[in-house]
Amino acid sequence: MHTDSLTIGGRTLTSRFFIGTGLFPNPYVQKEAIKASGAEVLTFAIRRINLASTEDDSILQHLEGENYVYLPNTSGARNADEAVRIARLARASGLSDWIKVEISVNERTLLPDPIETLKATEQLVKEGFTVLPYTSDDPVICKRLEEAGAAAVMPGAAPIGTGLGILNPYNLGLIVEEAGVPIIVDAGLGSASDVTQAMELGVSGVLMNTPVAKAKDPVRMARAMSLAIEAGRLSYLAGRIGKKRYASASSGLDAFKLK
Amino acid sequence: MELVINGEKQHLELVGTIQDVIEKLGLTGKPVVAEADGKVLTAELWTETSVYPGMKIELVHFVGGG
């Protein structure tokens, strides 16, 4: 597996797991889960500092000393302009020029607005960001984002945090078939079987937060997801058998059966 | 001086630059990003960016997210 690496924005990754940093029960569990996941790419959000209690410790202080790729998101943005603004703020931190474009307008579904996402992607690519847009599982919009210069395209499996798994495996398969950049499934996965299915469809990686952070045992789930990624990837590369309607014996010709 | 920081009026004494504001708020050395009047300011620009009464300043940081 050591040669089966993934390169995004000039950075070669050995893990296909992108992990989110929200919702963990505490910083210790978070750190252990990240370790167990083997992930190299960590996602974050950008928020206003609470001036009433500046003692609030930053999430970053628990992760110091490791060689992670930081992937800040533009969550909270409702249109392209807001996403671009958040992206610029994120880059000014000096920590990363990667940005996950995330633009949601519907509070109930948090589904991405693909039109605003495309606009923001075009602008941020112009400004030199490594852009990873989170978008709908639509093959046309995914291709458009690639053409706009996205370093990877991240279609959702299902709405954020639902754990519903891959609602449209047919679309996801088409997206992968047509893609010229890595496809990362982002959002909606629930368990290891969902992850394996995604990898078997040929995606380059998965981004998860809730299914790990909110599992009863996040550290164990991080490991399970990591193994599922590996299993699914190997299965994809190995090439599964075709599906048949009727049985075919595993032990050879009828002529040699005992009678 | 009265400033509008993160959408709220804040009265800070003896502040001339963004750097002073960061210090007054006890944020020195923390991974903070500043924006003043809609312009993003990398840390190098804090000492050379003057503040004036009513200036709109945003101070943000990374938090957990997916």
Automatic annotation (TrEMBL), chain A:
Q: What is its EC number?
A: 2.8.1.10
Q: Which residues of this protein are catalytic? A: K100 (schiff-base intermediate with dxp)
Subcellular location field: Cytoplasm
Drop me one GO molecular function for this one: thiazole synthase activity
Q: Which residues participate in 1-deoxy-D-xylulose 5-phosphate binding?
A: G161, A187, G188, N209, T210
**SUPFAM superfamilies in UniProt:** ThiG-like
Q: Does the keyword Phosphoprotein apply?
A: no
Q: Which reaction does it catalyse?
A: [ThiS sulfur-carrier protein]-C-terminal-Gly-aminoethanethioate + 2-iminoacetate + 1-deoxy-D-xylulose 5-phosphate = [ThiS sulfur-carrier protein]-C-terminal Gly-Gly + 2-[(2R,5Z)-2-carboxy-4-methylthiazol-5(2H)-ylidene]ethyl phosphate + 2 H2O + H(+)
Tell me which UniProt keywords the record has, alphabetically. Cytoplasm, Schiff base, Thiamine biosynthesis, Transferase
GO BP term, example: thiamine diphosphate biosynthetic process
InterPro entries in alphabetical order: Aldolase_TIM, Thiazole_synthase_ThiG, ThiG
Q: Which EC class, in a word?
A: transferase
Question: Which pathway, metabolic or otherwise, does it act in?
Answer: Cofactor biosynthesis; thiamine diphosphate biosynthesis
Q: Which residues form the Thiazole synthase ThiG domain?
A: 7-251
On whether Lyase is a keyword of this UniProt record, the answer is no
Example GO CC term: the record gives:
cytoplasm
Predominant location category: cytoplasm
Q: What function does the entry list?
A: Catalyzes the rearrangement of 1-deoxy-D-xylulose 5-phosphate (DXP) to produce the thiazole phosphate moiety of thiamine. Sulfur is provided by the thiocarboxylate moiety of the carrier protein ThiS. In vitro, sulfur can be provided by H(2)S.
The protein's matches in HAMAP family, at most eight in alphabetical order, are given as:
ThiG
Q: How does it assemble?
A: Homotetramer. Forms heterodimers with either ThiH or ThiS.
Q: Which family does it belong to?
A: Belongs to the ThiG family.
Q: What is the name attached to this protein's record?
A: Thiazole synthase
Organism of provenance: Paenibacillus endophyticus
From TrEMBL, chain B:
**Which Gene3D superfamilies would you find in this protein's record?**
3.10.20.30
Q: Which Pfam families match?
A: ThiS
- The superkingdom listed in its UniProt entry is Bacteria
Tell me the InterPro entries matching this sequence: Beta-grasp_dom_sf (IPR012675), Mopterin_synth/thiamin_S_b (IPR016155), Thi_S (IPR010035), ThiS/MoaD-like (IPR003749)
Name of the protein in question? Sulfur carrier protein
Q: Which organism's genome codes for this protein?
A: Paenibacillus endophyticus
